[in-house]
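Following up on my earlier thread - several people asked me to post the actual chain instead of describing it. Fair enough. Here it is, all 303 residues.
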Amino acid sequence: MRKKKVSNTQPPTLLSIIIALCIFGYAYIKGRGDSTATNSDPTTVVADSVPTAGTTEAVSTEDEAEDTTSVQAPSGIEIPRFTKKRQSQILIRLAYTASYNKYTRCPNWVAWKLTADHTDGPYVRKGYRFHEDLDVPYPRAYYEDYKGSPYGMQRGHMCPAADNKWSDEAMDECHLLTNICPQYGQLNGGEWKDLEDACRDWARDYGCIYIVCGPIFYSNSPREIGEHDISVPDAFFKVVLRLGRNPQALGFIYPNDRCSGPMSDYVMSVDAVEKTVGLDFFSALNDAVENKVERRANLSKWN
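Reply from S.P.:
Thanks for posting it. Predicted structure:
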């Protein structure tokens, strides 16, 4: 008779059951702990989407603090980008950069960084003459083109002489006629000058600001002056940016005509200026900061 095989399998002991339960419990608790730590990690921030340019969505005080604690200026922040096709020759000067248009004989824009220590200096405007810019092709503007203008136009600086008193070279270059537009006399010496004075005050107050300005042509056939057909702008724009703890930006458009009224009559958002002139300003900024400062203008935020 064959003997029954005796199984070597032993029933689990109480000790082995306890060990297995301990291992399972530890793995379960650790998994829960890892999951909780990931969800509560204070360095992981889920941010709300930034309101797009042109919206009026409010930004909370907390959001403002997060956006403004360490806003630094990227290199070349003042240089705009074209959003509409335009003839352009870039001219890099000591104090400013200009985009010159050979068809209008005017700059498309002039951009510069204005610091507090550049708002004064020993080199005053008297003694410096306007002169042609040999870096641009002929025909180009000459001093005589502005003499006896039938529209009461003067030689209007884009980067003003008073922003260049810190350097002989800078003062001389700001009198190049590629930095000049035909500007109505009462605007040149009135509201536009008031805005230039305000910019210098802001540079002194905040240490540094970034400025872009230039002519606006609403017509493809503008009026012209002089033997070399210098186009007369219909209006002028200026945008101003300050950074630091509380970044702000302002936009302005002034008609090239007799203007009256306070600066608040001409202020607008940078976004509004961009739509009019076909330029993208301060595009080197972080998108969140750029969208925020460009969609609104508040003169009360400027000293």
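The chain has seven helices and 13 strands. That should answer part of your original question.
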